[in-house]
Amino acid sequence: MSSQKQYISILFLVLFLGTIESQISKEFQFIHDQLQDKLEDGPHMSMFQKWIDNLVELYEIVTDSDDYKRKSRISHEKSGALRSGEGTEAEIFEKIRKLEERKKYKKMLDNKQFSNNPSENQKIYEIYLEEFKRQVKNDNIDLVPVHIFETPRTEKHFAAKSGHRVLQEAELQRNVIKKLVEPYPTQCYNSGKLVNQTQRYYECTKQDEPNSEKFRVTLETYNFFQNHTRHYQCTTYLKETPVCVCPKGYYEYQCALQTQTKCFVKITSPAFYKGCKGEDSPAYMYSIPGFDPCFPLNFSEPQEIKYQLICQGQDDTGLIDVTRENVGYAYRDVVKAPQYDAFHYIATNPETKFSIMNAESMKVQFTFQDWKWLSQTTKFGDDVNDPLLLTGQSEGSLMIDFSKLEQSDATGDSYYVVGGRAYFEADVLGLYVTSFTSKGFFDKLGYVEPLADDNKDLILALEIAIPLAVVIIGGIIAYCCCVQKKRKMPIHDD
């Protein structure tokens, strides 16, 4: 009886210590070991042992002890994310960051938004490409599994003996049979034209199922069934189907989505493209238009910068031809392409063939870089919606106030104008628009480049040598004075 009271007293002590945050896990473990020794031969050893183990684990969780962290990491490495190939903790956080970033850009794409940052627009474009591929041709949706067909061995043997060609699919024991379901429009958007095309249809019926309905299949499946005529009966015929022919700049089976446009800002005034004569130097590159000091501007007042937009449709997938009208979806087994009347665009560049069907808006932006704080920039921009300007048939202009850059530099908070030059990058921003970046320097009128000093190295050497010589000579003089003074001192004999 006394031993049971002792055990109960120790248990209450354990519970009390478990509620005190100042007690460390080593003290708790010591009590656990003492209890284990006392209960080792008792009849209730297993029950008490389990109870104490749970209390120890609970204490470690509550106090977040180092031992608990170590055990958790070992368990995590054995069966958690690290073992499953997600990588280290830093790599996992990086994946989470990229996932959140992707959600952000996907939301912007869905909401038809774009960023003032060209690099972010490029990431939105990468997500757009994934959506584009699914909308132009999507076998994951078009090919729907209907049943599994097990190839009979006897029929395979018969086909081989009869000399018929046995396809690779027929060698498999189990074949997933898929029906073909393509989307057909009843109306078209964005000035698309609803017309007919002619396709060859392949339809089959399963023989060993009563009341089996016909289902459309691909040409590959139709050829496969030719070796299994006892189980499938197939027919083929021509059929007119409605489709949407999309104008340049649009796609999808209803022409509901817009293709991507790639643009470039060509600065016409100052006429950087003309350049001027001069030899390349560490300060100026005459061989690169825009990097030469050929067209100085008065930075004390706003300047009108003229430009021309060079744009073209873009398709990195190769699924459609952006230079012409297209059926917005890649249909199978087309025998006769659709015939349609010519489209009427609101603007077309006869040289680049870039056309605009509907009114659009883009933004031209000049970004100036601060060389003191590289994360700091100053931007000047303007919205553009003139069809002739968007197709590159007229010039646009933008007022840039260089005095703002110099005023910022005067406070010491930035270095926008360095060596009489301001570096810029020009981009075109917009929905479904990416840009080649135009870059260069605007030069300040009246700035004179400091002349290089031919004796610069000699002056630097003298600046170092003269003070050093003075120190050495001074040391020698001080040493000589001390020696001479010591010699003049009288000598006393004790």
UniProtKB/TrEMBL annotation:
Keywords: Membrane, Signal, Transmembrane, Transmembrane helix. Residues 1-22 form the signal peptide. The chain crosses the membrane at residues 458-482. It comes from the Eukaryota. This is Uncharacterized protein. It comes from Stylonychia lemnae.
